[in-house]
Amino acid sequence: MSELIIKAGGFTFGGHLEETDAPETCAMFRKLLPYKGQIVHVRWSGEGVWIPLGDEDFGVGYENHTSHPAPGHFILYPGGISETEILLAYGGVDFSSKMGQLSGNHFITLTSGLENLKTLGNAVLWEGVKDISFELA
């Protein structure tokens, strides 16, 4: 199991790739590490932040997909009827867009720092965009 260090908005989280349940998505993401981006608050889905990726094609289909990620779960929406994105749930999420219900591949689970997750989400909501980075531990 690949362990990760995720830094976002001044917080550090531990996590792991869900390589058994989402092998293609995890293999694709490993190739991008270390990865840096920015998170903004979700528009439609509830208590989550996302990395908008536009038309980027990661070449993966659906695996281990859900519309209701739990707090601390990252999902990748591989594109299609809405833009490609990575979403992190910090509370209740019903993953959707202006086009309707979506599902994304659950590929990372946070394992430490969860006590700061809601604070991060609220900071993004009220203060705006925050940097995020992923690297192997």
Structural class: alpha+beta
Number of strands: 11
| Largest sheet properties | 8 strands, antiparallel, barrel
Query: Beta-strand percentage?
Result: over 45%
Spatial gap, N to C terminus: 11 Å
The rough form would be described as globular
Uncertain regions spanning at least 5 consecutive residues: none
Helical amount among residues, as a percent range? 10-25%
- Element-level helix/strand string: EEHEEEEEEEEHE
Mean pLDDT: 96
The number of helices is 2
Strand order of the largest sheet: 1-2-10-6-7-4-3-11
Radius of gyration from CA coordinates: 13 Å
Could you characterize what this model shows?
This protein has helices at residues 23-32, 117-127; strands at residues 3-8, 11-17, 35-41, 46-52, 65-66, 73-77, 85-93, 96-97, 100-101, 104-112, 130-136. It is of the alpha+beta class and 137 residues long. A hairpin with a 2-residue loop joins strand 8 and strand 9. The N and C termini lie close together (11 Å).
Describe the secondary structure blueprint for this structure.
Blueprint: E1 3-8, E2 11-17, H1 23-32, E3 35-41, E4 46-52, E5 65-66, E6 73-77, E7 85-93, E8 96-97, E9 100-101, E10 104-112, H2 117-127, E11 130-136
Antiparallel strand pairs: 1-2, 1-11, 2-10, 3-4, 3-11, 4-7, 5-10, 6-7, 6-10, 8-9
